[in-house]
């Protein structure tokens, strides 16, 4: 990677590297999607190549699968794995209860299926993703292409009765065309500003015909690994109520930094 890493990239990297240490021989591990998860995949690839770590990974998107294979991780499907020891993934926002908004990278459906099929979900994120109340980040909702505009109207009407600040839904684009997920669906990004009752909203959205899944991850994350630009890492465990702090040293001459991700 040319040039120095930004503080945000350093924060993402240290969170990913700390979480990679939790992967043990023989595990089946869900591999998330996004720039923080890409660091994780590279760290794990290095551990496979240099330390002989033996585990199998279930990617949550085609791009994570490609990167995982490229760095030497054995990739299997969720149906082959059936159940996972842990999933490690990024997030767009997290709150004090470790509830999340995910799907900024458009992979929320596979991410939610894989995380739900895991004994443990570990989220890796830079400290800037922490919020008091979810909702500043637009909430991604995966919808099927058939009648998506009708689904959008139904969503906006449903939001009238919800405790949210805004209710505009926008179709995610990829240049001049609608963004297409790995499952061939579209994404509507809901500009809510503030979500008063995320648990209720997550359930209500999924009742609307045409909605496949929404990006609210409620009671799914067990451990949150927060990285800071100065190398500090904080690990919060919601089940034990413990918080651990660490500092990781890293060198930008490391092989990992020669290989940029997404
Ligand atoms: C992809 C996701 C990502 O985990 C989320 O968007 C965070 O991405 P990044 O690590 O690049 O900030 O949910 O669907």
Tell me the number of helical segments per DSSP (H or I, 4 or more residues long): 7
Low-confidence stretches: none
Largest sheet: 8 strands, mixed
* Strand order, largest beta sheet: 3-2-1-4-7-15-16-17
Number of domain units: 2
- Sum up the overall morphology in one term: globular
Q: Count every beta strand, where a strand is a DSSP E run of 2 or more residues.
A: 17
CATH class of the largest domain: Alpha Beta
Unique ligands = ribulose-5-phosphate
Strand content of the residues, in percent?
Answer: 25-35%
Mean pLDDT: 95
The radius of gyration computed from the alpha-carbon positions, rounded to a whole number of angstroms, is 18 Å
**Class per helix and strand makeup:** alpha/beta
Here the CATH topology of the largest domain equals Rossmann fold
CATH 2nd-level architecture of the largest domain: 3-Layer(aba) Sandwich
Distance between the termini: 12 Å
